Amino acid sequence: VVLLEKESRPGGNSQKASSGISILSPENGDSEEQFIEDCLASGRGLCVPELVEALVRNSRGALEFLQSYGCDLSSSSQLGGHRQRRTHTPQGGPVGWHVMSKLQEAIKDDTESSVKITLKTDAKERLPHTQTQTHTHTHRHIHT
């Protein structure tokens, strides 16, 4: 995996996210149907329903993935457009910085990591990927 970052430090706008990460939260009385309805209503016709459904159905897995890398998303609140408490944040800090720093730390600490971060990289073109048995190839016109 190659992560392209145009800035001199990884993180970009993700690092600045402050509201939280919305996760399906049945422990707070949430349901897939309600979460999907809330997203579609907030999107005012601009959402792709199939993508909203995928987001909702995969949100618990995303939470578990982030937790496996030490992300604390134990606080939850109900934000605008939601009928349930489903927006998760870390205790005492912005969610974006917390998540990005934990993931970067995990990459640095894993000596066998297959993730390579390239900084100050300007990607000129995105190509559709092709699958081989062992690799996914998407590359051309990448300047560092």
From TrEMBL:
<feature type="region of interest" description="Disordered">
    <location>
        <begin position="76"/>
        <end position="96"/>
    </location>
</feature>
<feature type="domain" description="FAD-dependent oxidoreductase 2 FAD-binding">
    <location>
        <begin position="1"/>
        <end position="98"/>
    </location>
</feature>
<keyword id="KW-0560">Oxidoreductase</keyword>
<keyword id="KW-0285">Flavoprotein</keyword>
<dbReference type="Pfam" id="PF00890">
    <property type="entry name" value="FAD_binding_2"/>
</dbReference>
<feature type="compositionally biased region" description="Polar residues">
    <location>
        <begin position="11"/>
        <end position="22"/>
    </location>
</feature>
<dbReference type="GO" id="GO:0016491">
    <property type="term" value="F:oxidoreductase activity"/>
</dbReference>
<keyword id="KW-0274">FAD</keyword>
<feature type="region of interest" description="Disordered">
    <location>
        <begin position="1"/>
        <end position="26"/>
    </location>
</feature>
<dbReference type="InterPro" id="IPR050315">
    <property type="entry name" value="FAD-oxidoreductase_2"/>
</dbReference>
<dbReference type="InterPro" id="IPR003953">
    <property type="entry name" value="FAD-dep_OxRdtase_2_FAD-bd"/>
</dbReference>
<dbReference type="InterPro" id="IPR036188">
    <property type="entry name" value="FAD/NAD-bd_sf"/>
</dbReference>
<protein>
    <recommendedName>
        <fullName>FAD-dependent oxidoreductase 2 FAD-binding domain-containing protein</fullName>
    </recommendedName>
</protein>
